[in-house]
Amino acid sequence: MIPTEAAAAAPPPDIWSQLYVFVLASFIGLGVIRRVSRLLHTPLMSITNAISAIAVVGSIIVTGSDYPPGIRLLGAVALFASMTNIVSGFLITDRMLKMFKTDRKPGEGGPS
Amino acid sequence: MSYGFVQLSYIIATALFVLALHWMNAPATARRGVFAGVAGMTLAVAATWAEPVVVHHGWIIIALLAGVAVGVPLSLVPLTAVPQRTALSHAFGGLAAGLVGTAKYYLWFGEGPENLTAYRMVAIIVEIILGFLTFTGSLMATGKLQEVKWIPQRPVTYPLQNVTNFALLAIAVVTGVALILHPAAAWAPAVFPVIIVLALVFGVLLILPIGGADMPTVIAILNAYAGLSAVAMGFVLDNKLLITAGALDGSSGLILAIIMCKAMNRSFANVLFGAFGQVQQAKASGEEKVYKAETIEGAAQVLEQANLVVIIPGYGMAVAQAQHKVRELYDQLKKRGITVKFAIHPVAGRMPGHMNVLLAEADIPYTDLVEMDEINSDMPQCDVALVVGANDVVNPAARTEKTSPIYGMPIIDADRARTVFAIKRSKNPGFAGIDNELYFSDKTWMLFGDAKNVLGELVKQLSGGSGMH
To answer: Which of A26, B206, B435, B451 reaches 20 to 30 Å from B6, CA-CA?
Structure first.
C-alpha cells in the first residue's frame, strides 16, 4: 500500500481515544439537549440533522482523493446527500425559529 | 502542519456545534444557534477541502451544487410537511453513511487486505447496516407521512412479522461477523452487498407496521440511528469531528424518543414491534352512545362568557391547515379580555414539537403555548376547553379504562374543564380507532365539520355578533 501524504502526517488511529471522544460527546449531547425548550423540538430535530450531515467531511475526502472512479462516485452521491441535509436543515431551522415570537406587533394581548 | 490545522478547525467546529445546541434551550437565543452551526459546518468543510489528499475538485463542486439545488426547495416546504422533510433528511443521512462505508471497504480491499483490520471492519459493518436501514426506513416514514398512494398508511401486519424481521437482521449480523473474521477472503467483496440488501429490506419491514400516531417516536428513533451511523463513519475514517457531531445527533434523537415514549406510556420495543393500530379492531363498543352537537351560535356565546379558554390542538388541525383560523379565534377572544392558552401534548402531531411550530407560524406568541404538565393544574379553572383535531391525547380512558390500549398515557385533562367543545371532522373514532368517552360526557358539545370551516364560522360569529346581547 502506498501511504498518502495525509496518512503519513496523521498518527495511526487510536481506538481508545475515539471511544473516549464518543462517550464524552454523548454525555455532552444528553446534557445539552435535555435543556432544549420543548417548544423547539421540531427546530431541534432539523438543526441536529444539519449538524450530523458533518458526514460531508468524509464524503469530500472520498470524492476528492485519488481513488478509483467507482469509489469516488459513491463518495459524490454521499456528498450530495449530506449537502442537501446541510442546506435544507439550517435554512428550515432558521425559517421556523423566526416564527417564534413573544408578542405580536400591535400591542394587543400581552404575555400573561 | 496541515494535520494540526485541520484538527484545530475540527475542534473549533465541535465547540460551535455544542454551542448551537446549547442556544436552542430558549427561543430568544435559538437563532444564534443556527449561526453557530453554519459557522462550524463552513469551517469543517473548508478545512477538509483544503487537505492535501483532496486532489480532484470537479465532482465535489458538482455534488455540492446539486445538494444546494435540492436542499433549498426542501427548506421551503409548508410547515405541515416538516415531518416528511425531517424523515427524508434522516434517509439522506443514512444513505451518506452507508455509501461512505461501502466505498471505504472496497477501497481498502483493493489497496491491500492489511488495511481491513478487525476494528475497522466492525465499524464498517455497523455503519452500513445502520446507514442503509435508516435510509429505507426513513424513506418509508416519508412516504407514509406524505401519504404516497402505494405506501400503506395503516399499520401492515402479518403472522410472524417480528420473527421474520429479526431473522433478517440476524442474517445480516451473522454475515457481517463472517466478513469481520475474513475481510479479505475471495468471496468477501461479493458477500458485502448481501448485507446492504438485507439492511435495506429490514428498514422497509421495520416501518411497515408503524401507524401515523407513532410517527413522532419513530422519527426520533430514526434520528438517533442517523446520528449513530455518522458516529460509525467517524470510527471508520478516524475522524473525531464525525464522532462528536454524530453523538450529538444520536443523543438528541434518543432524548426525543424517550420523551415521546413517556408521553404515550409505551416502550421503544412496543412502538417498534407492537403494531399499535391493529389492537383495537377487535374491541367493538357495546352500547350505542350519542353525541350532543352544538351550533356555532351557541358555541360562540359560551366562548364569549369565558374567562379562561384552553385550546387543545392535534394532528387534525395540521391536516385541515386550520392554524391561521385558530389565530383569528385567539384574536377575537383576546380582544374581549379572555385569557387563551394552548395545551400542547408532546405527541400531538406527527413529530416532536409539531404543534408549536404550526402555531408559531400562525403568529401566536409562544408564551401562550403551554406544556401538558403545566396546563393540567389549570384545567379545573378552565371555562372552555376547545379540542381542535386532537383525540387520543384528551381521551380520559387513558386514566380510567384499564383495558384501553392507551391506558396509562398521560393526557391533557380536557374533561376537567367546565365545558368542552370538540371540533371533529366525522363521527368516526380517531386514529387509534378508540372510542373517546370525552365526546359523550355531559359537558361536551360537538362541533362537526372541517376544523378550518368550523373555526372560520366561529370567528365570523364572534366578530359580527359582538354587538349582540
So the answer is: A26
With an 8 Å Cβ cutoff, is B212 touching chain A? Answer: no
> What pairs with residue B416 in β-bridges?
none
pLDDT at A104: 56
CA distances from A23 to A29, B209, B223, B244 (A): 10, 33, 18, 9
Q: Which CATH superfamily is domain B296-467 in?
A: TPP-binding domain (3.40.50.1220)
Distance CA B383, CA B18 (A): 44
Task: State residue A50's pLDDT score.
Answer: 96
The series of mean pLDDT values per 10 residues for chain B, 469 residues long, is 86 97 94 96 96 94 97 94 95 97 94 88 96 96 89 80 89 95 91 96 91 86 94 94 96 93 84 56 51 87 93 91 94 93 92 93 94 92 92 88 84 93 75 72 88 92 65
Residue B331: predicted pLDDT? 94
| Range A24-33 average pLDDT | 96
Tell whether the model's pLDDT for residue A111 goes beyond 50. Answer: no
Backbone angles phi, psi at B424, to 5 degrees: -140, 140
B194 CB-contact burial (10 Å; exposed 0-12 / middle 13-18 / buried 19+): middle
* CB proximity list for B228: less than 8 A, separation 6 or greater: B130, B246, B250
Tell me which of B14, B31, B57, B60 to substitute to probe the interface with A (most A C-beta atoms closer than 10 Å): B60
**Across the interface, do A74 and B2 touch by the CB < 8 Å criterion?**
no
Q: How far apart are CA A6 and CA A62, in angstroms?
A: 13
How far does the CA of residue B184 sit from the closest CA of chain A (Å)?
15
Q: Boundaries of CATH 3.40.50.1220 in chain B?
A: 296-467
Model pTM? 0.90
CB B376 within 8 A of CB B413: yes
Q: What is the pLDDT of residue B456?
A: 93
Which of chain A's residues have a Cβ under 8 Å away from the Cβ of B68?
83, 87
Enter the ipTM.
Answer: 0.90
Task: Name residues whose C-beta falls within 8 Å of residue A14's C-beta, 6 or more positions apart in sequence.
Answer: none
**Residues of A (15-54) whose Cβ lies below 8 Å from B:** 15, 17-18, 21-22, 25-26, 28-30, 32-54
Say which amino acid occupies B370.
V
Give the pLDDT mean for A86-111. Answer: 79
For residue B100, give the C-alpha cell. Answer: 461512505
B87 vs B351: CA distance, rounded Å: 10
Q: Which residues contact B347 (CB under 8 A, 6 or more apart)?
A: B213, B216, B217, B260, B263, B264, B393
| Alpha helices, H only, B115-214 | 118-146, 161-181, 188-207
Closest chain B residue to the Cα of A25, Cα to Cα: B244
Dihedral (CA of B415, B419, B422, B427) sign: positive
Q: For this structure, is B363 an active site residue?
A: no
CB B320 within 8 A of CB B389: yes
- Helix, strand, coil shares of chain B, percent, nearest 5, are 65, 5, 25
N-to-C CA span, chain B: 82
